[in-house]
Write a structure and sequence with these properties.
The protein is an all-alpha fold. The chain has one domain. Bound molecules: zinc ion (ZN).
């Protein structure tokens, strides 16, 4: 059997097939491409995790900024009442 394209045949048919099988010729290229593809999938997963982390951090910072804004507004208000 040809492992590149699943061709089935006798030993001599297989030998003849392997000389012309385009998949067999591209075996290394396909293997490398698969490896690269898996690397990209991993990198994409990592980016998703980073984005989730940054989104959570952004949410926390927004809450902090909002509360700081209120504090500053309160200080302005008190400063005006004293004047
Ligand atoms: Zn083949």
């Amino acid at each position: 059997m040809c492992y590149s394209c699943q061709f089935h045949g006798t030993a001599s048919e297989l030998a003849a097939h392997l000389e012309h099988c385009q998949y067999e010729a591209m075996k290394n290229y396909i293997h490398q491409t698969e490896g690269r593809f898996n690397e990209l999938v991993q990198a994409l997963k990592q980016k998703d995790q980073e984005i989730n982390f940054l989104q959570a951090m952004l949410g926390q910072l927004s809450i902090k900024v909002e509360s700081l804004e209120k504090t500053v507004e309160g200080m302005h208000f008190r400063a005006q009442s004293c004047a």
